[in-house]
Amino acid sequence: MGNSQSPSSHRDPRFASSSRAFSHTELEALKSLHASLAAQSQSKGPYVSPSVFKNYFGLHGPLGDRMFDLVTQQRKDQNLTFEDLVIAKGIYEKGTKDEIEEFIYQLLDVSGDGIVGRSDLECVLVAMFDNIFNMDNSEHGSSAHHETVNIFLNAAKFAKQDEGHAEESLSFEDFRTWCTLLPSVRKFLGSLLIPPNQGRPGSQVPRLLHLENIDPNMILLKKVYAWHIGGILPQHDLEEWKLLYHSSVNGLSFSTFLGNVSKDKRPTVLIIKDKEGYVYGGYASQPWERHGDFYGDLKSFLFQLYPTASIFRPTGANTNLQWCAVNFSSASIPNGIGFGGKVNHFGLFLLATLDQGHTFSCTTFGSPCLSKTNQIYPEVIECWGVVTKVADEEKHDGGKGTVLERFKEDRHMLNMVGLANASE
User: Which one of 7, 56, 123, 350 has the largest count of C-beta atoms within 10 Å of its C-beta?
Assistant: First the structure.
């Protein structure tokens, strides 16, 4: 094996630039970590072996192999140097958005053939769900994973043609679009060099609370759906979600729905399964309260859960975020609840009868029709309350934030959305 295939005795110029991204304390901590892992590796030099690396970072199977390959700069010598670790973490954790996403894109190529195909993404998603939901006892790629994996794969566009490959692949730009639709996936894949015992971002799943007399099989919100929806929520919104309304238990009563979901003044997650079998909904950051016009803030969003998983954030095109009209007699103010779009042409809308509604593509969230058809007939309706300590503290403080402060927060959210859209 030539010198180019072994750990270099000459300092890689990228090491100097990567080192500058870390404080002296951080570099010393990385040096101690590498020395500890190298000692466990029992190697003939200051090198970390693949098995020790993968065990420490909780990465196993093809995803772990691919990460070790990338961190060691694809030398194939099975030796991870201190320089390798600093360079990889400097790019993957401290780099620009483009550098980080390029690293993740390469990580998805678990077969190492230079393309990111559907089989690569399937392998990565199975590894992710094994890690997050402790499905280690299930057979790799088994039917238990199959349906869940497919709803996330369905959000990806495989349209790139690669010479010599029959399978269409995922281009870098289509990968970035996929990450936008699946922020939970992006968050997890961007945090793999953080040990799982240190609270790896992207691994948090809200604890789902419901009455014991409700058959769990009736509930739409699976853990993987909650993880998906929570991908763009802050940590304090991922602690507990409480079932406030279920149409099979509470009946199709709009007054019961509003009474159950609005009393705690918390954000809510509305989920609908329609008679076509599609599952989708919206995250309402503001309480459901009677208004004669649109209201809400830029924390609200729409989502799809089945047969495709996607999240649609506010684009900033307008502020038509939430709608809640009760007992209005004017045809121009339809009674019911909704998200986005415009009156009678919402992104998602349920009539006050709760037995029908509609969904159209809308510029508010950049979302498509969420179901098979524009007209929807709900089969099951659920609403979950987001339980957070922060909300309780603010409630006790009496909502000290001024209107101006809340407006500034919305402006900040809008700027974030604008920056995200500009980079996609």
Answer: 350
